[in-house]
Request: fold
Amino acid sequence: MTYITKPKLHHPSLVKNQVGYTRRDYEGAISTLCAGCGHDSITAAIVSACFELDIEPHKVAKLSGIGCSSKTPTYFLGNSHGFNTVHGRMPSVLTGANLANRELIYMGVSGDGDSASIGIGQFAHSMRRGVNMVYIVENNGVYGLTKGQFSATADKGSKSKRGAVNTDDCIDLVMMALQLGATFVARSFSGDKAQLVPIIKAAILHRGAAFLDVISPCVAFNNHEGSTKSYDFVRDHNDAVNRIDFIEPRAEITTDYAAGSLQEVRQHDGKVLRLRKLSEDYDPTDRIGAMNYLLQRQAAGEVVTGVLYLDQDSQDLHGSLNTVGKSFNRLTEAELIPGSAALEKINATLR
Amino acid sequence: MKPTDISNPDYFHKVVDCQWACPAHTPVPEYIRLIAQGKYDDAYMINWESNVFPGVLGRTCDRPCEPACRRGRVEDGQTKEPVAICRLKRVAADFKSDIKARLPKVPKQKNGRKVACIGAGPASLAVARDLLPLGYSVVVYEADPFAGGMIRTQIPKFRLPEAVIDEEVDYILDLGVELRAGKRIESLKAVLAEGFDAVFVGTGAPRGRELDVPGRKEAAKNIHIGIDWLSSVSFGHVTKIGKRVIVLGGGNTAMDCCRSAKRLGGEDVKVIVRSGFEEMKASPWEKEDAQHEGIPILNYLVPKAFIHTNGKLTGMTFDKVKAVYDDKGRRNLVPTGEPEQQFECDDVLVAVGQENSFPWIERDIGLEFDKWDMPKVDTSTMQSTIPNVFLGGDAAFGPKNIIWAVAHGHDAAVSIDKFLSGEDIKVRPQPGVSVFSQKMGIHEWSYDNDVALDKRFKVPLKEAAVALKNIKVEVELGFDVATAFKEAQRCLNCDVQTVFSDNLCIECDACVDICPMDCITFTEPGEEKALRQRLVAPAVNLVQDLYVSGALRTQRVMVKDEDVCLHCGLCAERCPTGAWDMRKYLIDMTHAGPKCRPEQPQRKAA
Reply:
């Protein structure tokens, strides 16, 4: 915990983005997490991503459940809408909010306990429904707030800080998200902002359910030898399949790349995601191929990171429900109560 | 870039911008913290040991520390202003109690060595202060009836009350100086013949430069050389001046002249300067003070002639010029061709510069002079070409200021002490460095790391109506205790250093994320020039160092740009492994005495 607030003073070269804010304007209250927590790095990455995308903070809603990870929305976007929900219920509350007001950018922040244990059902349904959101799991493999018991994402065979070996199989949320129909799936590491920030940006720009599993070492309880979620382990076993170079419409290719090393993925709104391939055979538009690759590498003890899957023709919940283009919360009485003639017309179609 | 060697005392000394910029290297943040704690005696003694005249300097110092102050680079908004370091020094002097018991004890048993100091100004008094407690016998010669030198003769009393001078000069005289005042030394040869073991020349730059334009001789009665006139005012020989006064010159002496004239009956006082207003030599605050008292400063006017009728000065004429810069960036003042300008006046004060003058040093006694007729003096030892003759203050390298004179005095005292101990005076002592971690608890530091956002506080002034009536009424009232505390809190504690241990770092980025100034980067090693460009925020201030660690586990290095660090300690608070620590590096210049001798183990930074 930190007792002084971060001084308001800033570097003289600090710039403003197109909507008139500096990066510092996207910060929130000072973190009360343990020093060195990976979650704080993810917070900083979200701050950078929103600043770089010129997002107006009041157009973002950040929702979370319970846990160390779920505390973090307090530490970024201090001028956004926020809702700390019940343990594991972030996806449901977010789905409701999204239905009521589709104009906001929805950012759901959760942890491995919040999403892989108590809230696993909520997680699953928000993915399969395609709620338009960024679902970030800050995954440290332990219950940090209750002193470091294994969570459901801890790898079988990994060791706790006191030496106990985890005998349970682990839940791989990335694999589940792929199975359940998420249209953007990525994994990253809190200690690699160069990879993480562009992924968050791409996820924000994606229409539909974007799932991000971010390995985030718990310095207090899960950063020791024998852990598979420590800084050292992830650095040593990181199999990054690609890097995002640009997310721009019609961006010129300005750098020379080896033939076949670039992959451009066009998205629904015409934006092109340019990926620099690090693993030659990996195709992030192939869901089944992605799952195969993940299973193989995971068996080899590797942590696969990067943009793992991207559906170019993604739909979201509003699309599949065929809702009106206007946000529900802006519909007036005239639109909501169209009168008995309209009711008759609807009833007629059901006879 | 190679990893930074923080065991070199200069590395962290440079980070303390104020201390590094101070010729005497006074540990500024240390005494400012003591002022905030109300420990005025301790704050005063730190100053007294380092700069000898805290009360005097707290009012009159040229304060090279303030333009250097980091605060002036990091504040928000239009005005970025340094901590009022100089005026805080005065606070220590104003609110201290009787510190006499804390002055050094002078041994009753002398060491048998006799040193003469010529001129009783700040340089000589600093030499005497350093040598007396070591057992030397010190004789100080002074042409004026009192000791103090230019502190007493040239600084007007409304800036520096006599009582302050007396107090601080007496602290030194009371150590047992044998003062031979009231008689000018006419021959260095004669002094040397008296058999002193060493002689220190601290005679200042006593001659005001002349202005040789038509009418100078004819109207001489109402044309005065600035420093001589100030001296006469100071000793009460001059008590009034004409109603219309022109002051020529753009330095601090000109500012003292015009403000003094305003108090001695000058109603229409103006300063006229050759250069542009911006290039004037006077410190910005001294120009401000003069303008505040309703004295206009007219620029780009070159004196052409004194106008007089029947030997009585009636005015002056000037040519209007403009500044033109040549290919090499040198400035030339070129006539604009406009008609000459004439100003009526009753008196003119000429403050266009000061010069050294050594008519009393014989040219055949082995003391060599250079082509500008200045004595050859070693810049670090202060030694002349006669091995036991040393110079300092304005006498050594031309007109500077009090704080430089003090610094020269310390250097000369070290040389004299080593010289008379039969040692090589070229080997200069390292500063003493003491290192203390400031960590008290998980998030507790023994310094106040919260950065105050207050803007610089103004020193209250005596109302002009009263101040302008009496030349002895001090204009600046000094900070009160409450304001002094708030001003002291603006200090960033730059001496509390961010110390990085690469073997403890786990590269979690917590420090990078929390740093409010974007000072810290983890990146691939590289050459300094390229490195400066690829940091989180570019390091464009090239005079400020980069702190580079050894290789970390990922083969990257930590690079910290020292330029705008607030020393808030958040990097260390957010560091899970203690790889960052906040450590106070108290750097203490080594003065004359046992510590400057090589027999002692050299003091080194931990």
Notes: Chain B touches chain A through 37 residues (CB under 8 Å).
